[in-house]
Design goal:
The complex is a heterodimer of chains A (102) and B (510). With 102 residues, chain A is α+β, with helices and mostly antiparallel strands. Chain A has one domain. In chain A, 37% of the residues lie in helices and 13% in strands. Chain A is built from three helices and three strands; from the N terminus they run βββααα. Chain B has three domains: 94 residues, no CATH class; 308 residues, Rossmann fold (3-Layer(aba) Sandwich); 75 residues, no CATH class. Chain B has 19 helices and eleven strands. In chain B, the strands form two sheets. In chain B, strands 5-7-6-8-9-10-11 form a seven-stranded parallel beta sheet, with helices on both faces. Chain B has a four-stranded antiparallel beta sheet with strand order 1-4-2-3. The longest helix of chain B has 29 residues. Chain B is globular. The chains are: A alpha+beta (102), B alpha/beta (510). At the A-B interface, strand 2, strand 3, helix 1 and helix 2 of A face helix 1, strand 1, strand 2 and strand 4 of B. Strand 2 of chain A pairs antiparallel with strand 2 of chain B.
Chain lengths: 102, 510
């Protein structure tokens, strides 16, 4: 289980973002403070949507959750990978081209 | 599945990949920042689907950052205001107090940080030297670093090899000059010209440059400036500035430099990914960019519709001073690299540089132009020219060039005439080696052990060299073999200490 000590900060459109000393208008901004937390963000972006819905909308919706817990997303991604590996017959396992980045 | 659903599915898949690539790049760069990682933060911005139907995000802030290209492992420097469509992934520096508390003199800060790296070779710096300090030296080799780096740490492997030669060690001065590489090359050249005039002077030793990247253009510019004075000084300086070895210098410009923010982003990204001593961290580089124009990058541009570029001016000036039939007065050995393929990164870099042969930053046709008389190709990326393995491969040619231009034989004769270097006390050295050999197994810290191992190998090499000077020819062969093996071991030790920029993926279980 990943060990994050800080929770990500989520800022609404136009809100002052201290990390940037500025703001982002037009959407939601989530700021993470440890590189390990990016794994959680990647998991969220990967798993949030239900095709064929617009993925950006789904990510936006997922980021609005309070509190935003990226650990859970990363855990879910890992569990999912393990379950898929254990339960899928070898012929149905995703091919190399279907896998995401390491 | 109907056509509309299929299109929506494809679009979603594209966005997933684009986001994943950007976040992956941000993660990898951040991961390699060591202690300074805590000064960074990464932000993902997603447009509000209800109120922002155009999907346009407007960034406006004071802290500089890297904004990752969508669908690419590449980045652009973000300063002030910027509009982005779709989504944005940014890496910001300056979280908390550390960056704002940092010394304003980032050049000094970077150098002192590099000096604190264990086993790094501490170079004397020309800006801290006074007149007469080079008295008795036959020649000066001046090391000039490239963009977003410093003079200490980068050239170590080459300096180590140069220092193995007793003549170079005793009769040549090896010095560096840390400078702000984001300032214009012309500004840097004017400052360096003053230091050379002050420290070396017209009656001082001859000068050669060893340069990485942008440092090569700085050396060319300084050579021109020194030779542009009055006729009588001009000829003297022409004789004094003997040559220049350049590693990955964009002699004919870098096309990405026409968009400095993009060049900065790409360079920083590859540099951060690659790691290594003497290069600026992401945090430092972003801090430098905060209050600085990017003149030092703009000078690398090949063409500019609005004005005459620095390179065009440099070529003109060099031409005016060149002997008949030559392009310039300065002798140059240009080394250019062809980067080996690296998973993920190579694809995007190739895309940015149009698939030409390059060292991940500079195309080979620019780092070793066809019109240059002395060029040497190698297979490494822009930040690996001074890796022990590369230097081992290039050392013969580089040393030969430096010896030729700096008239090494003459120095040898002068050295013989004055005094030979004092012989080493072999007994004392053997005692120290023994002590160290006993101490190593008792040391628990891995770092300390590695440092001691390094010291031990260096001392053993010194002892063997001394022994070789006095040994008969029969025993020489064995000692030379032993020396070669020790040198190899030392290189390996150095290599182990290099940052592993591209971590290997664990083997897949069957």
């Amino acid at each position: 289980m990943p060990d994050f000590h800080l929770m990500p900060n989520v800022y609404k459109s136009g809100e002052v973002i201290p990390e940037f000393q500025g703001s982002v208008k037009g959407g939601l901004t989530v700021v993470v403070h440890q590189w390990e937390e990016i794994d959680g963000l990647r998991a969220l972006c990967m798993l949030a949507g239900n095709p064929p819905e617009n993925l950006l909308h789904a990510v936006y919706r997922a980021l609005q959750a309070t509190p935003l817990n990226l650990q859970v997303w990363e855990m879910w991604r890992r569990r999912r990978a393990v379950i898929l590996r254990e339960w899928m017959p070898p012929t149905e396992q995703p091919s190399k081209s279907q896998r995401t980045l390491p | 599945m109907d056509a509309a659903n299929r299109a929506a599915l494809e679009e979603s898949t594209d966005v997933t990949i684009e986001m994943d690539l950007g976040l992956f790049a941000a993660r990898e760069i951040w991961r390699h920042q060591g202690e300074e990682a805590k000064e960074l933060s990464v932000a993902l911005s997603v447009p509000d689907p209800e109120t922002n139907t155009q999907g346009l995000l407007e960034y406006e802030g004071e802290n500089p950052g890297l904004l990752f290209y969508k669908g690419s492992i590449n980045a652009v420097l973000m300063r002030g205001a910027l509009k982005v469509g779709g989504f944005g992934i940014a890496l910001w520096s300056g979280r908390g107090l550390a960056a704002s508390q940092r010394a304003g003199l980032i050049v000094e800060d970077m150098r002192s940080k590099a000096e604190n790296i264990p086993n790094v070779i501490k170079l004397e710096r020309i800006d801290k030297m006074g007149w007469g300090q080079l008295k008795g030296k036959h020649a000066v080799i001046l090391f000039l670093h490239g963009l977003l780096s410093t003079d200490v740490g980068i050239f170590d492997s080459l300096i180590q090899i140069l220092k193995m030669d007793p003549i170079i060690r005793d009769r040549f001065a090896l010095i560096g000059w840390p400078h702000n590489s984001l300032a214009s090359i012309d500004t840097n050249a004017t400052t360096l010209q003053r230091f050379i005039q002050k420290v070396v002077g017209l009656d001082g030793p001859n000068v050669a440059f060893v340069c990485h990247s942008r440092g090569g253009l700085l050396a060319r510019s300084v050579a021109v400036k020194l030779c542009q004075g009055e006729q009588k000084w001009k000829e003297k300086w022409k004789e004094k500035i003997r040559g220049c070895v350049t590693f990955g210098t964009p002699h004919e410009g870098a096309e990405l430099a026409e968009m400095p923010e993009h060049f900065f982003g790409t360079l920083l990204l590859v540099q951060a990914w690659r790691g290594g001593n003497g290069f600026a961290s992401v945090s430092d580089a972003l801090y430098c960019s905060k209050n600085s124009k990017l003149d030092g990058i703009e000078d690398l541009a090949r063409t500019d519709a609005k004005r005459k570029t620095f390179l065009e001016k440099l070529l003109d000036d060099e031409g005016k001073l060149a002997p008949e039939g030559e392009e310039r007065a300065l002798n140059i050995l240009a080394v250019g690299g062809k980067a080996p393929r690296v998973p993920w990164l190579s694809f995007w870099i190739n895309k940015a540089l149009g698939g030409a042969e390059h060292d991940s930053v500079v195309r080979m046709e620019s780092s070793m132009p066809a019109l240059f008389r002395q060029t040497q190709a190698t297979d490494c990326d822009h930040f690996s020219y001074f890796d022990p393995k590369q230097i081992e491969r290039l050392q013969d040619q580089v040393i030969k060039f430096l010896k030729d231009v700096l008239e090494w034989d003459k120095a040898k004769l002068e050295g013989d005439k004055t005094k030979s270097p004092p012989p080493l006390d072999l007994e004392e050295l053997t005692k120290k080696i023994q002590e160290l050999e006993d101490k190593i197994p008792e040391t628990k810290s891995r770092d300390a052990r590695a440092e001691m191992q390094h010291e031990l190998l260096t001392m053993k090499i010194q002892r063997l060299r001394e022994e070789l000077r006095t040994t008969s020819s029969d025993a020489k062969v064995n000692k030379e073999r032993e020396l070669a093996s020790l040198q190899r071991e030392l290189h390996e030790l150095h290599e182990k200490k290099q940052v592993h920029a591209f971590p290997r993926r664990p083997a897949r279980s069957k």
